[in-house]
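#lab-general

N.A. 3:47 PM
ok so I finally got the sequence cleaned up, no stray characters, all 278 residues accounted for. can someone with queue access submit it? mine expired

B.Y. 3:52 PM
send it over

N.A. 3:53 PM
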Amino acid sequence: MQLTLRHSQIMPDVYATIAGADRQTQERLAAILELRASDQQQRAIVDAYLADREIAGSARVLDIGCGTGFVTRALARLPGVVNAVGVDLSPVFLAKARELSAALDNVEFHEADARSLPFAAQDFDVVVFHTTLTHVPEAERALSEAFRALRPGGKVAVCDGDYSTISVANGEWDPLQTCIEAAKAAFIHDLWLTRRMPALLRSVGFCSVQTKSHGYLQISQSEYMASLIDRGADHLSSTKRIGSELCASLKAEARRRVKAGEFFGFIGFVSFRAAKRA
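B.Y. 4:20 PM
back already:
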């Protein structure tokens, strides 16, 4: 099977307009966010770039595009953090975030657009974007809002996928890679954003930009990468590019590879740290 797909040919990134998605879609994506959050490699990526943050005592931190609140909860547990605030467009994500954070008394969540934050200037010591900005149209507006919300000397941390690197292919013309291309078109607004991130951070006023790469590989533990294949196959089916039988067969082939020890799934992630001049 060989289909040529242009990015956004199938449909716009559902995360970019998540508040307008039906409740079932939001709940399904909330479950996927928590599936990813439970993955040890994903936790290691978060731990690695949060460990680089220099957080002074009595810090107020902001997690923009918090989803179900995994990173917000991690921030709340860091020494020196007195208040961790998460914002997202999805009321369903936020309801789940509040449920999962009920035991933490220094966490709060608000429904808000990353490009227009409901906070005063210089209100936070640290701002974090975890796998958020690739889903935000006009990401530079969100970075400008983060800059405005930070106190002088405050820090920003950005971690996102270099999603052009996503691969499950075992060779040329692999049909499962077509599912990945469909998922990228349907769920990611800007595949190439991480490659422009240093310049974008500087353009809105940040300085001291540093970068770190994080490889993410699934072979035997393949739940998250298999979910991307599923979502891509579903979109190919829902847009009438393939039939339901082929959709089911593609999903089954992913599971067959896992069982046979033939599965390979890779995404490159990149984290950035920068500062607002004191």
